[in-house]
Design a protein that fits this description.
386 residues; alpha+beta; four-stranded mixed beta sheet; 24% strand
């Protein structure tokens, strides 16, 4: 929880063209294509990307076949790496497939409905935004959505696919009051460099801010808000040309922007028998419904599993003192309302459908298109409050 007094909290996001996010999208696109043909497939797909090379590995057990190489190329090109201009080309890069099969030692526990792995998963919600998400993270995501829109529309034709945003929010007595700082680093062509060749022009900075930052932050900004665009000066070399990427390396961007603990497990490329993913979605669903029901202003939920076992070995609710009931009682109420077995979670959210690539950029939470973002258990929770 954001404490009393004045403090500053920061979250970041990364664009679809960030190397780690390219890998997340490839892994989830492969998962989606497999689930279209085989809803019972077991998928744990990892992607690695570097200069001119994509490696796809992991463990997949399925009755179907998908063209891994073509899926990877299509995702890369759709993101915007479709020619040599930005240092990586989905048409010409090498794609290496080193996928294996899931261990039968794991399968024997999962086949009967048990968890696909041991571990702990965390969900969170807070009432400071309509999405029940931290303001700093929501704004960071929205800035990059705007940036992608103006890039793809060619409104700012010098922008490249790789970008990172960061928003620092000032809080007073636990409430957000203003934006203190926005940082946006975006890949671009040499077209907007000044005469020194080491800086982008002030004109281009203003264009970027007017197109992608101010429409998002104007409600929260004031005359003292600081805006930094490409603070190193320039960002011509980006994407996989400048940095390797790996599936599952942006777990804080994917979740709650650092506002709560994280179980440590990544999401992308994993079918829903992997509780790293499915139980994290359920934990968010529980936390959001508790806050939406006004049973707390803020809520963190932890669920823990043993591999091969159906029922969770741990279930924890923490409202950081904001709950209208003791946390222990809220936990008991939640266990009556929400399914917590892997099979129950999968069936409740219909997680065997190919919905995953869209989760692989701009966060898995706070987006109304996903079933775990519904607040349809508010009435059931309230009915059990005495």
């Amino acid at each position: 929880m954001i404490k009393q007094g004045t403090c500053f909290f920061t979250s970041e996001s990364v664009s679809k063209g960030h190397p780690d996010k390219v890998c997340d999208q490839i892994s989830d696109a492969i998962l989606d294509e497999i689930l279209r043909k085989d809803k019972t497939a077991r998928v744990a797909c990892e992607t690695y990307i570097t200069r001119g090379l994509v490696i796809v590995g992991g463990e997949i057990t399925t009755r179907t076949w998908v063209d891994v190489e073509q899926i990877a190329r299509d995702v890369i090109k759709d993101i915007g790496y479709d020619n040599a201009q930005f240092g990586f080309n989905g048409n010409t890069c090498a794609v290496v497939n080193v996928i294996g099969k899931q261990s039968p030692d794991i399968s024997q526990g999962v086949d009967v409905g048990g968890a696909g792995d041991q571990g702990l998963m965390v969900g969170y919600a807070v009432n400071e935004t309509p999405e029940y998400m931290p303001l700093s993270l929501i704004l960071s995501h929205e800035i990059l959505k705007k940036l992608e829109s103006v890039r793809k529309s060619k409104k700012l034709d010098y922008l490249g696919p790789d970008a990172k945003s960061q928003v620092t929010v000032e809080y007073k007595d636990g409430k957000p009051v203003r934006i203190d700082t926005v940082v946006l680093s975006t890949q671009h062509t040499e077209k907007i460099l000044d005469k020194s060749g080491n800086q982008i022009t002030e004109k281009s900075k203003k264009e970027i801010a007017d197109a992608a930052i101010w429409p998002v932050v104007k409600k929260w900004a004031d005359k003292n808000t600081k805006i930094y665009i490409n603070p190193t000066g320039k960002f011509v070399i980006g994407g996989p040309q400048s940095d390797t990427g790996l599936t599952g390396r942006k777990i804080i961007v994917d979740t709650y922007g650092g506002r709560c603990p994280h179980g440590g497990g990544a999401f992308s490329g994993k079918d829903p028998t992997k509780v790293d993913r499915s139980a994290a979605y359920m934990a968010r669903y529980i936390a959001k419904n508790i806050v939406a029901a006004r049973l707390a202003n803020e809520c963190t939920v932890q669920i823990a599993y043993a591999i091969g076992r159906e029922e969770p070995v741990g279930f924890y609710v923490d409202t950081d003192g904001t709950g209208i009931l003791p946390d222990e009682k809220l936990a008991k109420i939640a266990r009556k309302v929400f399914p917590l077995t892997p099979r129950g979670i999968i069936e409740h959210f219909k997680l065997r459908n190919p919905i995953y690539r869209q989760t692989a950029a701009f966060g898995h939470f706070g987006r109304k298109e996903f079933p775990w973002e519904k607040t349809d258990k508010v009435a059931a929770l309230k009915a059990l409050v005495k």
